[in-house]
Structure prediction request, 368 residues.
Amino acid sequence: MLLSIIATIVLQEMSARLGVISQKGLSQIIRTEIKNPVIKGLTIVLILSAIVIGNAAYEAGNITGGILGLQTIIGNLNMEIGGFSMNILSVIIGLIAFTLLYIGNYKLLEKVLVGLVILMSLAFLITAMITKPDISEIFKGIFIPKISDNSLLVIIGLIGTTVVPYNLFLHASLVKEKWHKTSDLKYARKDTIIAIVLGGLVSMCIIISATAIQSQDINTASDLAKGLEPLFGRFAKYFLAIGLFAAGITSAITAPLAAAYVASGCLGWSSNLKSKKFRAVWMFILLLGVVFSSLGIKPIDIIKFAQVANGILLPVIVGFLVWIMNKQSVLGIHKNNIKQNIFGIIILGITILLSIATLSKVFQLNIF
Prediction:
């Protein structure tokens, strides 16, 4: 997690700087800066397939996360339709996300997301504190990590949920909605660092909470919340459930939004929150997420594709980002300095290794 947080801060700072200075999204700049039509076409296809289709798969997981939080408190709410068992909670979460996105007001969206993130952070922090962890062991684990033979996929998952390609696109697109002047750059940096560190601490709190349960019968996040109850009281269960719900809702909003920004930038559409094409993309992603999660369909094949695509895409996008951040024609005096380039190249190397490890596991190549 420490590695993930540092890597994300470096990359998201570049993405924020790009958005504030150029007042364009990352996909817009990639489309305009790549001059070779063949390379441009292949790049756009790769980005669209990985981000848009991949986000549709992940959206099902996001909505399911929110469902697990609600189910822990109120139980299952299923309805039989034509031989299918539809989960009503997924429809409710989908409608909440739809309403907030359809209103198309950035300031409202920002306030809702900030409120949910604060709620999620407090819920997971309190849950971790209730379990009374060994602080010395936590710091030892942060700075002296241990890697067992069967933990590679878990490590890839942890890094992958923090350093994700679509966040680089989303961040560059959203900062230009909030900040418009070069003087705003310091505020964008501060905002970025606080958000990423907070997100990393939330992830650490979830890991700490999970280690408090010795049972092996933990198959879902809902089982984790229920497993805390006999050990630490019913309040532990409720705090974790609220955190899961808030986490699910925030991701259910941001994943379709990111896909819409990426598609608009790649295809040269307007990235106005209220434009028809922009709305059509996020509606498509949200609808697929609701359908997969409400019908209980496990989109394993799509998620495998998303893993492979994102495994290939992450180093490609990091490479493009580092390349663009060195273009004076785009950023002027705000292009990368030597220190930023060193960090960027190191992270690029790590993402390449992560990409190879992901492909190795998915295709059972036994490279690692």
